[in-house]
Amino acid sequence: MIIEWSVKALVIILTLTAGFAYTTLYERKLLARMQVRIGPNRAGPAGLLQPIADAVKLIFKEELIPAKADRFIFILAPIITVIPALIITAVVPWGRSITLFGREIPLYLADVNVGVLYIMAITSISVYGITLAGWSSNNKYATLGGVRATAQMISYELALGFAMIAPVMMASSMRMIDIVEGQKTMWYAVLQPVAFVIYFAASLAEINRAPFDMPEAEQELVAGYHTEYSSMKFATFFMAEYIKMIAIAMIGSSLFLGGYLGPFVDQVPILGPIYLAIKVVAWLFVTIWIRATLPRIRYDRLMQLGWKVLFPVALLNVLVTAIVVVLIG
Amino acid sequence: MTTALYIILAVVIVGSALGTIMSRNAVYAALYLALNFMSVALLYLFLGAPFIALVQVTVYAGSIMVLFIFVIMLLGAERLAASENLRGQRFLAIALGVVLLAILGTVFISRAELTGIVTPPTAVDFGSPRQIGTALYTQYWLPVMITSMLLLVATVGAILLTRGEGTSIRDNLKRVDEKEQADQEE
Hints:
Oligomer: heterodimer
Largest sheet of chain A: 2 strands, antiparallel
Number of strands of chain A: 2
Order of helices and strands of chain B: HHHHHHH
């Protein structure tokens, strides 16, 4: 039993890290195409080895620690940033169960009855690393970037949480599997369009992606909280950012787009992970498309959007959903 | 196995609590506090209450970050002064702490004699979200209502406090907006 869990955990972590490497390539290629360029095409066939070349380059870069930085926290911060990103998808089911070597293996790591709350808890601690990185660098741009990131993530967490409550109420369960199975007849994105849009916007802000990438606004803050980081420590921040993108896409697909459900998944359960992967890739496509399209919005407008638009609308949506759920039964 | 894990956890909890009050650096103190909340959450998990554990992480550990930001932005100097302003407060604190511990200890020991050793409940759905929700909104509806009213009042108070003379910021922003629009029209 313990071996089975360990293998699954390893598979999840390896998939996410490999996914991270190829999401960077995916993003660069897509952005290039949208800007009528070709994108990376030198390393390997069609640039497929580009992530490996990047990793090798970053490993051989010099590690710098600023003289007056808080050394302990400076080294700890990238680790604290990447761990929540790696463990948040533990509750996301990849499928029902398959039979392998005469054993029935459920395609999920943790089937807890508070799955959605687990995601909320991990989201709320994922801000630590970024703030600590900004503060410990002893650099005004990094500190400002870290403070901005914290303010932004704490603000959008509320809207994100309320958007996630809508599917919970529809499925009347916090278990991710119940929520996915509740979408057999219709995706919650169709039944809960408001919650879906709020989740999408708030999740972009939560992972500091364009157009909400204020913590890293180059014109104002050099590179934001990771200004002073170099070599693999910088790569770790980069990794956390892209893994968070994948995680948000996985969670969003499970909550609103039917997760592993799709045609013939009842007969062939191995299709489950494939459907989930397709949905995640589509979600990432839209995220990158938005980055290529929209300019960064100003900081005060970002806060206004979060507190004065997304949060009240999400609250209202929860209220209406609750009434409808009680009335219909 | 469980006992060993429990002992490790207990050491971490007590150690981080001590670190919170003994650390001279406010940022480290805040971090110790966060560590303390998380290890207490793990303790709840041990006792078979995942809902409480995760709420503990979301609400407490998440909100420590706000405290942290306050330290950075408002206090500026993270290091606390080494000297004490109140004379003899350390002695008084130790004495009062010992008294509190003695009272707590006697209560626990006398209670344990009455009810036997306290064991975690074994019901399968103990502490499930459904059960907690039902308990909160039927048995404990009055405390829930009172707490929510208090929180509402606190929110209104916070908004009132920040309004004060802060209108100049809004005027500034409006001016920036108008300037941007004028620029675009040009």
